Amino acid sequence: MDDATPKERRTFLTVILGGVGAVVAAVAGWPLFRYLSPIDKGSAEDLVRVARQEVAVGGAHFFSYQGRPAVLLQPSAGEFLALSAVCTHLGCIVKWVDDKQEFLCPCHGGRFSPAGQVLGGPPPTALESYPVSLDGEDILVG
After folding, report:
1. Number of domains in the chain
2. What residues have CB less than 8 Å from 9, skipping those under 6 apart?
3. Do 62 and 29 lie in a common domain?
4. What is the pLDDT of residue 43?
5. Strand pairing partners for 65?
6. Do 56 and 119 lie in a common domain?
7. What is the pTM of this model?
8. For a FRET experiment, which of 28, 72, 85, 120 has its CA 20 to 30 Å from that of 104?
9. Which element (helix H / strand E) includes 16?
10. Nearest alpha-carbon partner for 89 in 62, 56, 125
11. Which residues form the Rieske domain (predicted)?
12. What is the mean pLDDT of the chain?
């Protein structure tokens, strides 16, 4: 019944273990590759248009800017701020806490002010800000 020689078994096991090892190496190496590869920032002419009524006073509106999560705030009537929604600690997406009027990173408890400044926790730097301009009833980010 079993016609395989010990050499054939060793060869079979070597091929199988090599394949499994290659898959494990690829899975482990992908995050390192993404970390080291440059981020595509898009062209300088990329603008995101958001209607003013989508951003309540004291509220936040999340959107995508140049392929990354971003947030638009209206801290007071007619004043708008656009920030990256990616925590500067480990890249988690921050959440807006309405009753505290601050951002909270759900991964490690980093806290940011509405202007993006670090209030507490492990984040090393403030959230990146983006230029904002008004065009009629629209807000332009970028």
Report:
1. 2
2. none
3. no
4. 52
5. 68
6. yes
7. 0.66
8. 28
9. helix 6-36
10. 125
11. 47-141
12. 87
